[in-house]
Design goal:
The protein is α/β, with parallel strands linked by helices and about 950 residues long. The protein folds into three domains: about 270 residues, Metallo-beta-lactamase, Chain A (4-Layer Sandwich); about 40 residues, no CATH class; about 375 residues, Ribonuclease Z/Hydroxyacylglutathione hydrolase-like (Metallo-beta-lactamase, Chain A). It is built from 33 helices and 34 strands. The strands form seven sheets. It has an eight-stranded mixed sheet with strand order 7-6-5-4-3-2-17-18. The chain has a seven-stranded mixed sheet with strand order 8-9-10-13-14-15-16. Strands 24-23-22-21-20-19-34 form a seven-stranded mixed sheet, with helices on both faces. β17 and β18 form a beta hairpin. α1 crosses α33, α15 crosses α17 and α25 crosses α27. The longest helix has 19 residues. It is elongated. The N terminus and C terminus are likely disordered. The structure holds zinc ion (2 copies). One zinc ion binds next to loops. It is an enzyme of class 3 (hydrolase). It comes from Brassica napus. GO terms for molecular function: 3'-tRNA processing endoribonuclease activity; metal ion binding. This is ribonuclease Z. Pfam families: Anti-Pycsar_Apyc1, Lactamase_B_4.
Length: about 950
């Protein structure tokens, strides 16, 4: 569970010190040999991971034989069943082992005469428009970030912005668009260093709803610095009436900056269910005036001796002259002072907010005509639909010479990916094998025309205003030093196009073009002609009957996120999109940034279509890497379907997820219906068939041997915090799910318990049977997804005869002890589960972020297996080819280490801190 903190006893388990681990990723030139070793028993290179003891687990070991060995071994893992796992973690008791922490706030010595200060656009979501961009306010010793949408962490990792140095986060609204990245961010900060960090989070009063919701999976300590301001509907603020409406809320006021908030609260909208972003905030950042320079020549001329009086004058006091009978005032000896720059951040999500903005009395002192303050820069987070309005433009004109930066969503940046590292990999994979790696949405042909004419969409409106620019990723406005006041474009990254990526690839790996030709030929001819003679795994390459003449619009698996723990540069966190084409779609897990990944895969319109098409979302367990993107997807779906006839989407998830969603719906209507995973087990489905409702309140006794009476896992079900669900009340939803599945051509969606944390599940999807041309019945395919789990009998049982098994493979084979401690699987274990169950194809996913581009695998075991990559799209009609693509990854990734060490700017290795963040947090959040 996420509330747990890093284990302090991990050293016992081969946990390596942070610093050296972080370097290991980039300083191990031999890592590629084990990645694609061709010998099945090739030993690991000595010293490869210095904390690893020599492999105790022979490569061909079966999970079922863990027991004997584990009994001889000491450790925190228990093994009273036929397989090994960490019982305390599975039961959610591991967090009790850890000392309670009170997370520190950074304290810094401030530097009022900051030599450098600027605001910078962090273009999070600027390309995919799935989230609001963030803005960084940077000082030598203090950092502030405005808005924390999904993907902020991933963005900061890629662009080397150290989140550990951020002191305050301000939300311009409280909704998934502006705060979707906050849960992940708080968890990451809590995992930094020995004690963890926290950050001050500010937002309008709605923030308390978000905090309430996050309590279900974020340690309280990580949120103690969360503060809301402004009137709240339930408890009117004390002094709220006496505080004049024209006074902004002053949130920060130190030697360096004063940050205040002006609330925009339009009258409640008529539209039902439209709760999000009702209140928005204008943030005002004012830097202090800098005193002019002291001129000793002037002081001397006025008859002053060098000494303490100089200091007094500089601090603003008048003094008596030493040699003349006069009083010397500071203005006599000081140069002219430099006014402190003022920056405004404005977020008007709708025109009604703009009207509030126009009439806000607290804005008055900032207008050029009647104000005493001069605004240098205004960053508009408002969407183009609002900023283009006459109301808004007339308001903008009140600031005569302010620099306006329009940072609301615009189409301009769409074709240029903000996360270059991952788009580069996607483009390379696309070149190698477009069948499994389709062109990303950015670079699809429909956008090609825009590329040829970059000016076509970059025009700024209202040329009469003169000082408007469109925001670009990493665009800066310098505030200090004063001589540089103004826009700074030097950090804006060069634009990456797919043709440039391919040119790079071809010059780096010239033979790749012939490999691409070979890959094409994999699709030609009968599926298994040559293999039949040469290869011993004949049975596994015989195409199962369910795939007979299968159509391309039957089912496609799209891996949207294949990394564990937290979003990284190359792999986003878990999400699998099951595309059933005209019949709808299902999401299995939904980590942070899933909406953005859909946009990267399908383009802006395509992703909206995909979201509209969702009929069911299934969540495996309540770890942040599996569900924090859910609210954003649901909110987007509600927005897209608003007004039209539609049904709420069905969310099937573990019980704690319901707590989160219930609390969250006070903030944003999510337009969904919840069904507990335990109500979709085979037992529950069976009870649906029985006619008598009294019989339907069965418990987990029939969930298989793992949860049978007296088994160690049963206690998890019996814990007070997880009451056995009442099937009777879930019955209407279960019936509805049955109908929805039927409409999608599915026969079954069955959740089954797995061994990971309390209430962790895997899922089976089964297609209904169909008829072939001759009228014969063809069985439906069966797809199984493991969620996060140790290999366990339940997993094998559920996977029996599956057409595809998507199984987590967090760790490489040598790290089996870590896999046991964290209740995850190694590559080999995942493959063994599939093999024991007679699965036709295995897809590995959920790789530890210690394998940034490609995980460590043993190629010789991959004859029916493939490793997953973000955006990989596996059509059922291509399933027979799937494992044959694996050897080609060797060609594509042969230069991985070189890339990381001497690639261009964005290919440099991550800084030590970010990597150590990865290391720590992965221990308590996946
Ligand atoms: Zn996970
Ligand atoms: Zn997990």
């Amino acid at each position: 569970m996420l509330t747990s903190m890093p284990h302090h006893n991990l050293t016992l388990l081969g946990f390596s010190p942070l610093k050296s681990s972080s370097f290991a990723l980039f300083l191990r030139p031999f890592s590629l040999y084990p990645i694609l070793a061709s010998s099945p028993r090739r030993p690991r290179a000595a010293g490869y991971r210095r904390s690893d003891p020599s492999p105790r687990f022979p490569p061909r070991r079966k999970w079922s034989s863990f027991e004997e060995e584990s009994r001889q071994r000491k450790g925190m893992s228990s093994s009273s069943d036929s397989f090994e796992f960490n019982k305390r973690r599975a039961e959610g008791k591991d967090k009790i082992d850890q000392p309670k922490k009170s997370l520190k706030r950074n304290t810094r010595t401030l530097n009022p005469t900051n030599t450098i200060a600027y605001v910078q656009i962090l273009g999070t979501g600027m390309d995919t428009q799935d989230t609001s961009p963030s803005v960084l306010l940077f000082f030598d010793k203090q950092r502030f970030i405005f808005n924390a949408g999904e993907g902020l962490q991933r963005f900061c990792t890629e662009h080397k912005i150290k989140l550990s140095k951020v002191d305050h986060i301000f939300l311009s609204r409280v909704c998934s668009e502006t705060a979707g990245g906050l849960p992940g961010l708080l968890l990451t900060l809590a995992g930094i260093g020995e004690d963890g960090l926290s950050v001050n989070v500010w937002g309008p009063s709605d923030l308390k709803y978000l905090v309430d919701a996050m309590r279900s999976f974020i340690p309280r300590a990580a949120m103690v610095h969360t503060r809301s301001f402004g009137p709240s509907d339930s408890t009117p603020q004390i002094g709220g009436s006496s505080k004049a409406k024209e006074d902004p809320f002053v949130l920060v006021n130190d030697e360096v900056v004063k940050i205040s908030a002006i609330l925009l609260e339009p009258s409640p909208s008529e539209e039902p269910g439209n709760k999000s972003g009702e209140t928005s905030v204008v943030y005002v950042c004012e830097l202090p005036e800098i005193n002019g320079k002291f001129d000793p020549a002037k002081a001397m001329a006025l008859g002053l001796r060098a000494g303490p009086k100089y200091g007094k004058l500089q601090s603003g006091q008048s003094v008596k002259s030493d040699f003349k009978d006069i009083t010397v005032h500071p203005s006599d000896v000081m140069g002219p002072s430099v006014p402190g720059p003022v920056v405004l951040l404005v977020d008007c999500p709708a025109e009604s907010h703009a009207e509030e903005l126009l009439s806000a009395p607290s804005m008055k002192s900032y207008y050029s005509a009647d104000g005493d303050k001069f605004v240098n820069c205004i960053i508009h987070l408002s969407p183009a639909s609002v900023t283009n309005s006459a109301t808004y433009q007339s308001w903008m004109k009140r600031f005569h010479s302010a620099q306006h930066i329009l940072a609301g969503h615009e189409t301009k940046n769409m074709e240029f990916p903000i996360l270059k590292a991952s788009s580069r990999i996607t483009a390379r994979l696309n070149y190698l094998c477009p069948q499994f790696f389709p062109a990303p949405g950015f670079w699809s042909p429909q956008h090609a025309t825009d590329l040829t004419n970059p000016d076509s969409s970059s025009k700024c409106f209202g040329s009469s205003l003169g000082e408007n620019v469109s925001a670009e990723n990493l665009l800066k406005f310098t505030l200090r030093p004063h001589v540089n006041l103004g826009l700074d474009r030097s950090c804006i990254p060069s634009q990456l196009t797919s043709s440039r990526v391919i040119d790079e690839l071809l010059s780096e790996i010239p033979e790749i073009s012939s490999k691409t030709e070979e890959v094409k030929r994999l699709w030609n001819g009968p599926h298994n002609n040559k293999m039949m003679i040469e290869e011993p795994w004949l049975n596994e390459s015989t195409v199962p009957s369910c795939l007979e003449n299968i159509r391309r619009d039957d089912m496609e698996i799209v891996l949207l996120g294949t990394g564990s723990s937290q979003p990284s540069r190359y792999r986003n966190v878990s999400a699998v999109y099951i595309d059933l084409f005209s019949r709808g779609s299902i999401l299995l897990d939904c980590g942070e940034g899933t909406l953005g990944q859909l946009k990267r895969r399908y383009g802006l319109e395509g992703a909206d279509e995909a979201v509209r098409n969702l009929k069911c979302i299934w969540i495996s367990h309540i770890h942040a890497d599996h569900h924090t993107g859910l609210a954003r997807i649901l909110a987007r779906r509600r927005e897209l379907l608003k007004g039209g006839a539609h049904e709420p989407v069905i969310v099937v998830g573990p019980r704690p997820l319901k707590n989160f969603l219930d609390a969250y719906q006070r903030l944003e209507d999510l337009d969904m219906e919840f069904l507990d995973c335990r109500n979709t087990t085979s037992t529950s489905w069976a009870s649906l068939e029985t006619t008598s409702p009294e019989k339907t309140t069965s418990n987990g006794s029939a969930e298989g041997s793992l949860f049978s009476k007296g088994s160690p896992m049963l206690s998890i079900y019996k814990r007070p915090s997880s009451p056995v669900t009442d099937n009777a009340s879930a019955l209407p939803y279960l019936k509805k799910l049955k109908r929805v599945l039927g409409e999608m051509g599915l026969e079954d969606l069955i959740s089954f318990p797995v061994v990971h944390c309390p209430q962790a599940f895997g899922v089976v999807l089964k297609a209904a049977e169909r008829k072939n041309m001759a009228g014969d019945k063809i069985p439906g395919w069966k797809m199984v997804y493991s969620g996060d789990t140790r290999p366990c009998p339940q997993m094998v049982e559920a996977s029996k005869g599956a057409t595809v098994l998507i199984h987590e493979a967090t760790f490489e084979d040598a790290l089996v002890e870590e896999a046991v401690a964290k209740n995850h699987s190694t590559t080999k274990e995942a493959i063994d589960v599939g093999s024991s169950a007679g699965v036709y194809r295995i897809i590995l996913t959920h790789f530890s972020q210690r394998y940034p581009k490609i995980p460590v695998i043993d190629e010789s075991h991959m004859h029916n297996t493939c490793i997953g990559f973000d955006m990989m799209s596996i059509n059922m009609a291509d399933l027979h080819v799937l494992p044959k693509i694996v050897p080609y990854f060797k060609n594509l990734f042969r230069n991985v280490v070189v890339d990381d060490e001497d690639g261009e700017g964005e290919e440099e290795s991550d800084d030590g801190l970010m990597m150590s963040v990865n290391k720590v947090s992965s221990f308590f959040r996946n």
